[in-house]
Amino acid sequence: AVKVLKDPVTRAEFLLKSEGFDVPSDHTNKAGKALPLEFFEQVLEDREALEDAKQKGPGAVAAVVKATQDRRTATLNLINRAFFTWEKSGDRQDLAPAAPELAKLRYYDRFMDEAEGRAHE
After folding, report:
1. CB under 8 Å to 101, separation ≥6 — which residues?
2. 8 A C-beta contact, residue 76 and residue 62
3. Contact at 8 Å (CB) between 109 and 10?
């Protein structure tokens, strides 16, 4: 339980599931609704930037990781706002925006692990 609650991704997954939301996969939610095309365009740009950065050296990789960390933080803030609004209102529909953002958060974590040469946990 402590492991689930310590990690913001697993904590959000747990809370969404406990409120009856389908937790999205990396590409779609359970209803088959795709994540925005802009997100996938960003994924491709991230991958290209990482490949270029690896050829340039550690400083360039660190810059790519920093940009991804910034997007991850912004996404986590969106999720936190959804949970805060839900907590205040009690309306479970206030959690709806958090579900697709969770897939983005997973991607950012995996991407940073890859960029930093870590195995994804």
Report:
1. 75, 78, 79, 82
2. no
3. no
Classified as helix, coil or strand, 24 is coil
pTM: predicted TM-score of the whole model, two decimal places? 0.79
How far is C-alpha 52 from the chain's CA centre? 23
Indicate if the pLDDT at residue 4 is higher than 90: no
- How far, in Å, CA of 22 to CA of 96, rounded? 10
Query: Could you give the count of Cα atoms lying within 13 Å of 40 in the half-sphere of its Cβ?
Result: 7
Q: What is d(CA 102, CA 81) in angstroms, rounded to the nearest whole number?
A: 13
DSSP 105-120: HHHHHHHHHHHTTPPP
pLDDT tens-place string over residues 6-34 = 888 888 888 888 888 877 655 544 444 56
Q: Which helix (H) or strand (E) holds 17?
A: helix 8-18
Helix, coil or strand: residue 102: helix
Identify the burial level of 105 via C-beta atoms within 10 angstroms of its C-beta, where 0-12 means exposed, 13-18 middle and 19 or more buried. buried
Whole-number Å distance between alpha carbons of 75 and 111: 14
